[in-house]
Design a protein that fits this description.
It contains three helices and nine strands. It has helices at residues 8-30, 53-58, 119-127; strands spanning 38-43, 51-52, 62-67, 71-77, 80-87, 90-97, 101-106, 111-114, 132-133. 24% of the residues lie in helices and 31% in strands. It is an alpha+beta fold. The termini are far apart. It has a four-stranded antiparallel β-sheet with strand order 3-1-7-8, with no helix packed on it. The chain has one domain (8-133): SspB-like (SH3 type barrels). The radius of gyration is 16 Å and the shape is globular.
Length: 160
């Protein structure tokens, strides 16, 4: 009997992603209750991620969005989060597959989830050029140093 038949780690991660799905569905139907708001970090190169070209250029690997005040059209469709956000007073539609999410946090209640990508998912991400919204080709030239997204510590958002 193989030790890896029961992959509890993958089962737990799938269950926790269901928490994100259910949360998005509830908020899409009812709005954000009270002081709740979300920080959602995702891998921008994941197949199915759709963001404007200028954001992909600025965040070629990972991006964090905040769902708090200026968002609209939130829905969960085909296992992906769809939302319209404002960037420098320009409304942009984003599509983020649930599988692309690496972190989900609601600082109002000190709740956070961290997700790991499996080796197979990571390989698929690395081999895929994710589509962009109405933008030009944003492939980086070979030899150019890779730019990383900003890492935000969730501790600074926790109530003390």
């Amino acid at each position: 009997m193989s030790d890896d038949i029961l992959r509890y780690d993958l089962m737990i991660e799938a269950a926790l992603r269901d928490v994100v799905r259910e949360t998005i569905e509830i908020v899409a139907q009812n709005g954000l209750p009270g002081e709740h708001h979300f920080y959602i970090t995702f891998i921008t190169r994941t197949p199915g991620v759709s963001i404007p070209a200028y954001l992909r250029k600025q965040y070629p690997d990972e991006m964090t969005i905040v769902l708090q005040y200026q968002f609209s059209d939130l829905k969960l469709e085909e296992d992906a989060l769809h939302v319209t956000l404002s960037f420098n007073n320009v409304r942009e539609k984003l599509v983020v597959p649930i599988e692309a999410i690496t972190a989900f946090a609601d600082p109002s209640v000190n709740f956070a989830l961290q997700f790991q990508n499996s080796a197979a998912e990571q390989e698929k991400i690395e081999k895929t050029d994710a589509p962009v919204l109405e933008g030009s080709d944003t492939k980086e030239k070979e030899g150019k140093e890779e730019k990383r997204g900003e890492v935000i510590s969730l501790d600074k958002f926790r109530k003390k």
